[in-house]
Specification:
Elements (H helix, E strand, L loop, with lengths): L3 E4 L1 H13 L6 E9 L2 E8 L6 E2 L4 E2 L2 H12 L7 E8 L9 H11 L6 E8 L3 E9 L3 E9 L6 H4 L4 H9 L13 H13 L16 H10 L18 H21 L4 E5 L5 E5 L11 E7 L2 E6 L2 E4 L4 H14 L3
Parallel strand pairs: 1-3, 1-9, 6-7
Antiparallel strand pairs: 2-3, 2-6, 4-5, 7-8, 8-9, 10-11, 11-12, 12-13, 13-14
Helix pairs in contact: 6-8, 7-9
């Protein structure tokens, strides 16, 4: 499939509005989104900032503003947005990059091994947008673009769940400082040491800790689709297994500590299928269902399987499941 850029309606309108507001000078912005194969999905276009330099034939970004807004806007989405490229206006019909542009585009291309995208806007006399892919060593390739939310997978446009964010803030639970974990064996050793130590007093109600976490996460996932896949392939990438394990464990760290606060002992291992399995060590009773998840990664997403379905994992999911279970149990009384 030829390379292509897909703009959300919001991102494209942002470019038009910024160009119109600075119709007599150069201006620009940066693109936030995702790259999937040869397709760049531009979900947000960030304006250049109030302290940018706007001149007839020169433009410079307000870098402090840009960095701040990238950090804020990218976190509004269920899957955090990446910085994937930039755009700026050129005077007249000049739709090639200058020497200064080459330096800027090189820096953006360095952010990802597959490069970045860069766009030029001209008013000659109508609005005209020219898209390029930028790869290293510095090479430009003109590519097509389309505009429309209907061309973008729905999960890429999904915002974070407001109710879930409120739940995360509703019950403050003291968390130990995040430990430095570099390898799977180091984490497993640390988990064993933590489980051997006497548990400190917890703010979690004792009468609510004696339950099957399998039941809690079952009810939690049953109400959500996440990245539900019909034929999930949960496994670690063979070429970068150690890196993937490290990434998953770092994301899981606080959730593992949370399970420890619930007195749930877990063990981890890589199964024959190539997935990182997290499971409850010993169920307290025969009627207690054993908690078990298989983790893997695909692109930049952490995926896990549960009851033969596939879901996206995000840090804090275990705590959210517990809080929701706790609130539903409270409604029974």
């Amino acid at each position: 499939m030829p390379k292509c850029v897909v703009f959300s309606e919001r991102a494209f309108i942002s470019i038009l509005v910024e160009t119109q507001e600075k119709i007599k000078t150069e201006t620009g912005g940066v693109f936030l989104g995702y790259r999937k194969g040869d397709i760049w999905y531009v979900i947000e276009s960030i304006d250049p900032g109030p302290n940018s330099v706007f001149q007839t034939a020169y433009f410079e970004y307000d870098q402090v503003y840009i960095n701040h807004l990238i950090n804020k806007v990218s976190k509004l989405y269920a899957t955090q947005l990446d910085l994937i490229g930039l755009w700026h206006r050129h005077p007249g019909s000049f739709d090639s990059f200058s020497g200064t542009d080459d330096g800027t585009n090189t820096k953006y291309a360095e952010l990802d091994k597959q490069g970045a995208i860069s766009a030029l806007v001209n008013i000659d006399p109508q609005f005209r947008l020219t898209m390029y892919s930028v790869t290293l060593p510095l090479k430009y390739e003109k590519i097509k673009y389309i505009v429309g939310d209907s061309y973008i997978p729905k999960d890429l446009l999904e915002k974070k769940d407001g109710t879930m964010l409120q739940q995360q803030m509703s019950i403050p639970i003291q968390q130990p400082a995040v430990s430095s974990i570099n390898k799977f064996k180091m984490l497993a050793t640390q988990m064993a040491k933590n489980q051997a130590k006497p548990q400190k007093a917890s703010s979690i109600p004792v009468e609510l800790t004696e339950f099957s976490f399998h039941e809690a996460i079952y009810h939690f996932l049953q109400q959500r689709t996440f990245a539900n896949a019909k034929n999930p392939e949960i496994r670690l990438p063979r070429q970068a297994e150690d890196d993937a394990v490290m990434m998953i464990l770092e994301k899981l760290d606080n959730d593992l500590k949370f399970l420890s606060q619930l007195s749930i002992e877990c063990e981890m291992a890589i199964n024959p299928a190539g997935a990182l399995v997290l499971k409850e060590s010993e169920p307290p009773t025969e009627s207690h269902s054993r908690f078990e998840l298989a983790f893997g990664s695909k692109d930049k997403d952490i995926l896990f399987s549960f009851n033969e379905c596939c879901y996206k994992y995000y840090p804090g999911l275990f705590k959210d499941a517990y809080i929701e279970f706790l609130s539903k149990e409270g409604e029974k009384y």
